Amino acid sequence: MIQTATIDTVMRALADPTRRAVFERIANADELTVVELTKGSGVTQGAISQHLKSLRQAGLVAERPEGRNVYYRAEPEGLAPLVDWMTHYGAFWRKRFGDLRTLLKEIDP
Q1: For the whole prediction, is pTM greater than 0.90?
Q2: Among 73, 69, 70, 71, residue whose Cα is nearest residue 61
Q3: CATH number of 7-107
Q4: What is the pLDDT of residues 60-73, one digit of tens each?
């Protein structure tokens, strides 16, 4: 059974800057292998594999084995807990930005 990741799991996975960079590289490509992710990253292949494991557990990436390679692709649905959380607080920020817009118009008509 597939279990939906919690907001804590997703935030923890994306809190690490290296892991976030790995996720962004995967999100900007169709699929990438560990070798491709390691090239030019300044991080060891073992470290990349550990970051991928965390991203996979958070539901942010999926893997597809093919021969000796494993291809990773972004799973946009994995961001759902984060989107839900942000949406909940979106009303708060929209009101604050609306108040700021009104104040700025009053200051500089």
Answers
A1: no
A2: 73
A3: 1.10.10.10
A4: 999 999 999 999 99
